[in-house]
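To: structure desk
From: M.T.
Subject: fold request, one chain
Message: Could you run this one when you get a chance? Sequence is below, nothing fancy, just the single chain.
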Amino acid sequence: MPATLIGAHMPTGKGLPDAIRRGKAIGCTAVQVFTSSPQQWQSKPLAEDAPQKLAEAIAETGLNPQALVSHDSYLINLCAPEPEKATMSREALTRELTRCATLGIPFVVSHMGAHMKQGEEIGIQKVAQQTKELLQEIPAGVTLLMETTAGQGSSLNYKFEHLAQILDLTGNPNNLAICLDTCHIFAAGYDIRTPDTYKATFAEFDRLIGCDRIKVIHCNDSKKAIGTRVDRHNHLGDGEIGETAFRCLVHDPRFTNTPIIVETPDATEMHETNVQRLWDWARQPNPN
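Reply: Done. Structure tokens follow.
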């Protein structure tokens, strides 16, 4: 069965309920949002009726509540070399997870950390320790998703082994899983451009971690070539990855009920187009 939960990251300038309704209007059955500014440490307290209004928008649009995703602040770095920033990062991520639990948003995506010349091993150890502690403090009902990265700069988690190591160091808790970004893994060196390379890459992920730990997929083409470790998203089928990978993705039975989220450029003009491309490919024959 092809993918059923296809959507996009929607703007929240007019509030979370508006983002849900606008997502529905462009064909989304899954929606990702920011619950606060991704460029600021602090966030405004939730209005008392915020959970109710969001729930009403979800009911009105028929959105699957398990297809709602939040992305945390870009400032967060759990392995920052400065202790103050590491603490601020942990507190900000804890607040985001708690806020999403209150709102009924089941998944929070995070880039987790960049080692900033400390070395990957030290960075991974620090991220794992911070993550293990904060996951013991958050309410039930929300899962932290470590996002695969392109490996730009000193970002961690561009190798599947990084994710596997953090999961192992944290004790594989149920509230820690993965958000896989197609552009990021491609830029990091994982080929998904043909049915054979797509199968091989996901077989490697399955061997190291398990594809069942992928709870959300960011679906983006890449402006840069494979292995460049440069994070530049492109419209689906128009970049270096090409449409075959996305056809394979929307026909992969492991991800039939996994939110597949578009984060391509020119959101206002092009999100609807990219979402529609995924639906069109899902209706066409399986390329495998």
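Reply (cont.): The chain is about 40% helix and 15% strand. Let me know if you need anything else for the meeting.
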